[in-house]
Write a structure and sequence with these properties.
alpha+beta, eight-stranded mixed sheet, two-stranded antiparallel ribbon, about 200 residues, L-fuculose-1-phosphate Aldolase
Length: about 200
């Protein structure tokens, strides 16, 4: 399966989870010429190859029609920041959005078996912090906040916005995204029951 096919498959799966409401979310994969990214305003439940744009390392469109996602600049900044990032998947789940507002210092996971889905973790006994960066309509501001807290090996939350998962390739990024979304849902449910 090509990188483009893997990315389309991941987007379709993510959309089926309900994590891309109202055309939200954006998804990209590194390519030799730059990166593939979803075009702005596309319904992720009906994503097709023509909904992906090829951009260069600074985010200029090389191939495809339409405008790149409004957050393309942040994807480009992530690829420039870390050569090991091969994919970025960004969702707008309820759990990620709510918890990013409730925990501006970051969301901590402790004692969950699913923590082992995150590359480098071999035990549920670890305590893991998923960082939160402030939201902004200026992607350069978010990129600067991410750079200041780097490294963030599995991703980060943007306050009141959602989750950005990263990985060395589409499959790893998708696993990180699924694991983090599960962990966020668990924390949200625990907090609900603690009230």
């Amino acid at each position: 399966m090509s990188t483009q096919e893997e990315l389309l498959d991941a987007i379709t799966w993510v959309a089926a989870q309900g994590w891309t409401p109202a055309t939200g979310g954006n998804f990209s994969a590194r390519m030799p010429q730059g990166y593939l990214i979803t075009a702005s305003g596309r319904d992720k439940t009906r994503i097709q190859a023509e909904d992906l744009l090829l951009c260069d390392a600074i985010g200029l469109v090389l191939d495809g029609t339409g405008l790149p996602s409004a957050e393309s600049e942040l994807h480009a900044a992530l690829y420039r920041l870390d050569a090991d990032i091969g994919c970025v998947l960004h969702t707008h789940s309820v759990a990620a959005t709510v918890l990013s507002r409730r925990h501006p210092e970051g969301v901590r996971f402790t004692g969950f078996e699913m923590q082992k889905a995150l590359q480098g973790n071999r035990t549920h006994d670890a305590s893991i912090l998923l960082p939160v960066v402030p939201n902004s309509q200026d992607m350069a501001d978010i990129a600067a906040a991410v750079k200041a807290k780097w490294p963030m090996p599995w991703g980060f939350l943007v306050a009141g916005h959602g989750l950005y998962a990263v990985g060395e390739d589409v499959a790893t990024c998708r696993r990180h995204l699924e694991g983090l979304e599960f962990l966020l849902a668990c924390v949200l449910e625990e907090e609900r029951w603690q009230r």
